[in-house]
TrEMBL record:
<dbReference type="GO" id="GO:0005315">
    <property type="term" value="F:phosphate transmembrane transporter activity"/>
</dbReference>
<dbReference type="InterPro" id="IPR000515">
    <property type="entry name" value="MetI-like"/>
</dbReference>
<keyword id="KW-0472">Membrane</keyword>
<feature type="transmembrane region" description="Helical">
    <location>
        <begin position="58"/>
        <end position="77"/>
    </location>
</feature>
<keyword id="KW-1133">Transmembrane helix</keyword>
<keyword id="KW-0812">Transmembrane</keyword>
<feature type="domain" description="ABC transmembrane type-1">
    <location>
        <begin position="144"/>
        <end position="353"/>
    </location>
</feature>
<feature type="transmembrane region" description="Helical">
    <location>
        <begin position="215"/>
        <end position="232"/>
    </location>
</feature>
<dbReference type="Pfam" id="PF00528">
    <property type="entry name" value="BPD_transp_1"/>
</dbReference>
<feature type="transmembrane region" description="Helical">
    <location>
        <begin position="31"/>
        <end position="52"/>
    </location>
</feature>
<feature type="transmembrane region" description="Helical">
    <location>
        <begin position="89"/>
        <end position="114"/>
    </location>
</feature>
<comment type="similarity">
    <text>Belongs to the binding-protein-dependent transport system permease family. CysTW subfamily.</text>
</comment>
<dbReference type="InterPro" id="IPR005672">
    <property type="entry name" value="Phosphate_PstA"/>
</dbReference>
<comment type="function">
    <text>Part of the binding-protein-dependent transport system for phosphate; probably responsible for the translocation of the substrate across the membrane.</text>
</comment>
<feature type="transmembrane region" description="Helical">
    <location>
        <begin position="264"/>
        <end position="285"/>
    </location>
</feature>
<protein>
    <recommendedName>
        <fullName>Phosphate transport system permease protein PstA</fullName>
    </recommendedName>
</protein>
<dbReference type="InterPro" id="IPR051408">
    <property type="entry name" value="Phosphate_transprt_permease"/>
</dbReference>
Length: 366
């Protein structure tokens, strides 16, 4: 008995490609919406400003443009891509806007310092002091040397104390009463005002050398009081991130604890520790109040930390701006140039820290 052949399966027709229902916006769509929002509200604010005879409000233009962009991107993405993708784009827009807002003061400060400080950024500024200078001319070489010497001395005092304190807290002081007391004191020291550190250092050296003492080493001690808690906290977190398996593997090979710390724990966390030290230096290198009390200010070069007053860049900026002479523009230009120099020193120190961290970081490749 013959059987009829099975009917061939009917293939469904391929759906037509409809862009608005394809489930994905083109890559240029968010940028187009952002540019469109900026253009529309820029035109509106321009017309309103011209009609009212006022200035163009950059802040209002940006805020309303961003709000309009967020509403548009969420609405269009919800229609085309669905609720989940729309909410993802909405949150991405909020995060990007927050990043842009955070960058505004940074870029503004950088631009202001560079544009105002470049006028006196010359060879004379880096080769002359203010000795015998009234009015135009002069430089800040004595303040640059003072900042470098005092900050370096403060780092030499603070880094060993802070690092060894962090090692004790992580490696030896677990659940001990002394460790809890040290942690509490470090937390308290982290929040003390800088002027308190300056008064402490001044009182300490006044007891030894008498009232009215001013010297660079006293300023270094004041800065070290501010640096130590930052070094302790950052080093403590970096040491805590080292896996215990590395310590246990070293102990299993018969390596004593102190050698394990030196050869395993510290090399593993050296990159983070170096970054923490640089953060501590950046925290104190721009302090003015403690150095004004302890190191004072002078117009001449002084490279001896233990004899006489010593000028630093923060105090130099303050004195040039607060005690302007004739013409006042010369003093203001020197203050801005010193501020630019201070920022460049901090950038150079951070660059050196990154190089050191990269060189001494543990090698993971074979």
């Amino acid at each position: 008995m013959a059987t009829a052949p099975a009917p061939a399966p009917v293939r469904p027709a391929a759906p037509a490609h409809i862009p608005l229902t394809s489930g994905h916006l083109p890559r240029w769509a968010p940028w187009a919406l952002l540019v469109g929002s900026l253009a529309v509200f820029g035109a509106i604010y321009g017309v309103l400003g011209a009609a009212a005879g006022g200035e163009f409000s950059i802040a209002g233009w940006l805020i309303l443009s961003v709000i309009a962009y967020l509403v548009l991107i969420y609405t269009i993405s919800r229609i085309v891509e669905g609720a989940r993708r729309a909410f993802d784009r909405f949150v991405t827009g909020i995060v990007s806007s927050a990043f842009a807002i955070a960058m505004v003061p940074l870029v503004s400060v950088g631009w202001t310092v560079v544009s105002n400080g470049i006028a006196r950024f010359d060879a004379t500024f880096f080769s002359s002091s203010m000795r015998g200078i009234v009015g135009e001319g002069g430089g800040a070489v004595h303040a640059i040397w003072g900042t470098l010497l005092i900050t370096l001395t403060a780092a030499i005092i603070s880094v060993p104390i802070g690092l060894m304190t962090a090692i004790y807290l992580i490696e030896y002081g677990q659940e001990k009463r002394l460790a809890r007391a040290i942690t509490f004191l470090v937390d308290v020291m982290t929040g003390i005002p800088s002027i308190v550190a300056g008064l402490f250092a001044y009182a300490l050296f006044a007891l030894i050398f008498g009232p009215g003492v001013r010297m660079g080493f006293a300023g270094a001690v004041a800065l070290s009081v501010l640096m130590i808690p930052v070094v302790v906290r950052s080093s403590e977190e970096m040491l805590r991130l080292v896996p215990n398996e590395l310590r246990e593997a070293s102990y299993a090979l018969g390596v004593p604890k102190w050698l394990t710390i030196v050869k395993v724990v510290l090399p593993t966390s050296i990159a983070g520790i170096t970054t923490g030290v640089m953060l501590a230096i950046a925290r104190v290198i721009g302090e003015t109040a403690p150095l004004l009390i302890t190191a004072g200010f002078t117009d001449a070069m002084n490279q001896n930390l233990f004899d006489g007053r010593m000028q630093t860049l923060p105090v130099y900026i303050y004195s040039q701006y607060a005690y302007k002479g004739i013409p006042p523009e010369a003093y203001v230009d020197r203050a801005w140039a010193a501020a630019l120099t201070l920022i460049l020193i901090v950038m150079a120190l951070n660059l050196i820290a990154r190089i050191v961290a990269k060189v001494f970081a543990p090698k993971t490749g074979r």
